[in-house]
Every structure is written in C-alpha cells, then in structure tokens.
Amino acid sequence: MSVSVIGRTTEAEAVAAFLDAVVDEPAALVIEGEPGIGKTTLWLSTLKLAREQGFHVLSTRPSAAESVLAYTGLADLLNGVDPSALAALPDPQRRAVDQILLRADADGAPTGPRAISAAFLGIVQRLADDAPVLLAIDDSQWLDPSSADAFAFAARRVLGPVGILATVRNDRASLHSVASLELASPDRLERITIGPLSIGALHTVIS
After folding, report:
1. Residue 197: what pLDDT?
2. Sign of the alpha-carbon dihedral angle for 137, 139, 140, 144
3. I want to staple 96 with a disulfide (CB 3.0 to 4.6 A). Which of 43, 83, 111, 186 is the partner?
C-alpha cells in the first residue's frame, strides 16, 4: 500500500519508505515547502495510510493565532488518547496531562514543564508498546513553544516504532522551528522539499 498524491510520486515514495522504517525504530520526516505548495495534502495522505497500517496517529494542525497559547498543540496530540495510557502514568504526570486537557481543578498548583514532557514521553512509549505511533504536526512553525519543547524532549528519548512527521514553510524563520527536532539516531531524520508540480502533473490534476 502506498501514499497516493497526484503528481507527487517521488515525495509519496519517500513517505512510504518513512512509514516502513518506523517498524524498526524511531524515524522522522520533515516536509519543507512554500505556503500552498501541497505539504498539507501529502501530510493528510500520510496520516490516512498510517491509520490503514494500524498506527496510533496523534496529530495537530496549529495556526498562527494559537501559537501564543501554551500547550495547545500538545493538547491536540493527546486528545483522543485511550484513557488506559493516561491512567498508567505516575500521579504527578497524570495531573500534568489533566491540566493540559483542562480536566484539572483550576485552583490546583501549575505543573512544571518537565513533568509535562515526561508525561508525553510516557504516553507515546506506552502506545508504541501496543502498535506503531505516528506523531504528526502540520505547519510546525505555528506550534506553541511549550508544546514544541515537550515534543523535542520526547523525540530525543523515545524508543521503538515511533514516527515523527512534520511540515514546515521553507523560509528561515519557519525552519528555525524544527531546528530542535532531534532523534537518538540523527541519521533517522530525513528532509524532503516540495517544489511546484511539473507541467505534465498539472495537466493530470486539471483534467
């Protein structure tokens, strides 16, 4: 089974290879390109394929307006996670997740970023014990800094079948947003750049 995106054969092959690689150990794929070039279409197709292959898919599509709201992206990623994965967390980490998901008492003491990062890592690791996991961010340049820090913390430490998929604009400021994305094995992170469709591909799309 493969990703099907008209006019994007090379990119689709890269995405399929990325998902295959996740079966063995963590891998990451960053898709770069100008606004409106087709990054989100490829991203959505990858999520669909991952679900068909039995992945746990945790995703977020942040916006510029949300980039100033703490842990908004992380809340999206954790939304819908099976409660059993949360229940197994140590109490401080579970309380941290409850606060992010607005389930905790507003009068409770705020939880530190390390507890939140550790909780996110613990959840991802527990899910990966059951099936491959895909952590997917569209428009990474809009991910709020608090979520970005927790995400980077987990990415550097996670083990097992975990894939990280991110799209980002290819201007200097936007690319800076994924500069902190690292894996335990640096050679497991790939980048591809999406360019304009060829004349032949445009003809296929239009017809």
Report:
1. 63
2. negative
3. 111
